[in-house]
Amino acid sequence: MNRSRVLCAAAALIVAVAGPIAAVTPAAASPADPPPGGLPGVAVPTLAWAACTDDAAYQCAAAPVPLDYRRPALGTVTLRLRRAPSTDPAKRIGTLFLHAGGPGGSGYGWVSSYATSSPAEIREKFDIVGYDARGVQRSTPTLSCVDTPTYREQWAQTSSTPNASSFDTALRLATEFDAACQANSGELLPYVGAEYQARDLDLLRAAVGDPKITLFAESYATYVGTVYLNLFPKRTRAVVLDAGYDPQRYALDPYAYDYGQYRSTESAMFRFLDWCAATPAQCEFAAAVPGSTKDSLAARIKAIMSSLDADPIRDADGKVIVNGPTMLSELTFRLNSGTRRWMALGADLRAAEGRTGSLMYVIPDSDTRFNAANVAVECADRVYPDSVPLLRARLARAAADAPLTGPGMAYGPPAYDQTHAPACMRWPAERRSRYTGPYHGRGSAPVLVVGNTGDPDTPYQDSVTLADTLVNGHLLTWQGEGHTARRKSLCAEGHMYAYLLELTVPPAGTTCTDAPIPA
Questions:
Q1: 81 pLDDT more than 60
Q2: Taking Cα atoms as reference points, which of 214, 200, 224, 186 lies closest to residue 78?
Q3: CA–CA distance, 360 with 362 (Å, rounded to integer)
Q4: Beta-strand pair 473-481/14-16
Q5: Which of 184, 304, 345, 361: CA 20 to 30 A from 44?
Q6: What is the 3-state composition of the chain as percent helix, strand, coil, each rounded to the nearest 5?
Q7: What is the pLDDT of residue 29?
Q8: CB neighbour list of residue 339: distance below 8 Å, 6 or more residues apart
Q9: pTM for this prediction
Q10: Helix H segments across 220-364?
């Protein structure tokens, strides 16, 4: 969410200013192949790699890509790329692209952690390249909606417990948010959807000289990867989709998709509370009240949020900076780390009862920017029916069926993922970059889809459905908690890396049951 053109060249010129990376010339396209990016009149960027100013161990470059692929004369947007060069160019296979999730996450920022945590053979055989997608973080122009003081004021008007005015407040805040997005990023909004992101990815593939793409995508980026598989199936070497999206429900039935996320978040919260009640010696929140049950712990969380609604924390100027919904936002986000962070989360909740600790979370500028991208991209991808009664009914159902975590999210300001319906219902921009199918990826190389059974953010069933939807999809399951499997399961990582290196997918039904990697 972390928030000049020439005719298409036949081959990309790679200028390696730093590092002994050999240029690779892509195979000539056959007459039946679409040009790089898939549409005519689009220039393949020339990448002038140079030492990054923030860390000379990595190389950086800028890539101009069309604002509108169907009207390339309209101008360009600039993507910022970061590369960890292959440590053994003689063994180099090609480029491993990283596409971060969110939407709004930084692939540019992901490169260093991915490179330093990957096996030596991955670092030897691939240039690892991440980039910030169009509209995101370092890429320009950047998506912008409300500013941080205004965003904090929006959160201050909401409550973690629904009341008679909750729906009307949510609708009003969404309208204000939409207007700010249009005012600040109106020229960019129509062009940030998944189809154009996938076309960007193909231009970058051509720019680095790879005839086929090797891609690691997680969370929302799995949808972009799925779109790529359908636009350019013959250009896929290896694609890992970690924490997969069900593409048809995401794009074509957004209320149903959101509902699955509400239920997934609520279920993860209660699995944590189950553990907390069962192991009070490790959970400070439960230990504070002997004999706690998951329901009594949930009631205490509700009491904390209600207390913050009634008496929020204010800054020196008297402005609200922490209330129930802001605490809930941070609390649910931390579930993404899985069981290895549960002990710390128990301590955080105990501190929150005294109105201290890290759950007393003040919305920072980085969240404002991330959520601007998160909302704008998903509203570009999805169409909600323009019906206020339907919106009212769907939010009420989410709040009722996820009573601990749902209300504060359903009736809050536009923020993360399942909170987008009020903003997207009357989104002010055209959707020129929206993709609506097909999703089968027929003709692609084998695709590895990875899902966690306890994912609080992307329901496990989404990965199952995505693997079934893709003609060449192969499902790998990890029985674990948290969002995405990489850096959580060594077993799952082993299968992912073997596939990237050797193009071997695990046998059907493969399930990893290992304990999570320590935090």
A1: yes
A2: 200
A3: 7
A4: unpaired
A5: 184
A6: 45, 15, 40
A7: 43
A8: 275, 480, 481, 482, 516
A9: 0.93
A10: 220-231, 247-252, 254-278, 284-287, 294-310, 324-334, 342-352
Q: How would you label 423-457 residue by residue, b for 16+ Cβ within 10 Å and e otherwise?
A: bbbebebebbbbbeeebbbeebbbbbbbbbbbbbb
- Per-residue model confidence as pLDDT tens digits over 338-391: 999 999 999 999 999 999 999 999 999 999 999 999 999 999 999 999 999 999
- Under a CB-based contact definition with an 8 Å cutoff, are residues 414 and 441 in contact? no
Residues 202, 38: contact at Cβ < 8 Å?
yes
* 238-258 pLDDT, tens digit each: 999 999 999 999 999 999 999
Question: Does the structure show a pLDDT above 80 at 14?
Answer: no
* Mean pLDDT (the chain, rounded): 94
Residue 189 has a pLDDT of 98
The model's pLDDT over 140-168, given as tens digits with 9 standing for 90+, comes to 999 999 999 999 999 999 999 999 999 99
Q: Output the 3-class SS for 148-204.
A: HHHHHHHHHCCCCCCCCCHHHHHHHHHHHHHHHHHHHHCCCHHHCCHHHHHHHHHHH
Distance between start and end Cα atoms, the chain: 23
3-class DSSP assignment, residue 239: strand
Give me the pLDDT at residue 373, please: 98
Q: Which amino acid is at 304?
A: I
Q: CB count, 10 Å around CB of 41? A: 16
For the CA atoms of 27, 28, 32, 34, the dihedral, rounded to the nearest 10 degrees, stands at 80
The SS3 assignment for 444 reads coil
Could you identify the residue written with the tokens 């969002």?
Answer: 483
Cβ atoms within 10 Å, residue 505: 21
Among candidate residues 456, 400, 381, the one with its CA nearest the CA of residue 191: 381
- Measured between alpha carbons, how far is 149 from 380 in angstroms, rounded to an integer? 25
Which residue's structure tokens are 């993360």? 416
Per-residue pLDDT at 46 exceeds 50: yes
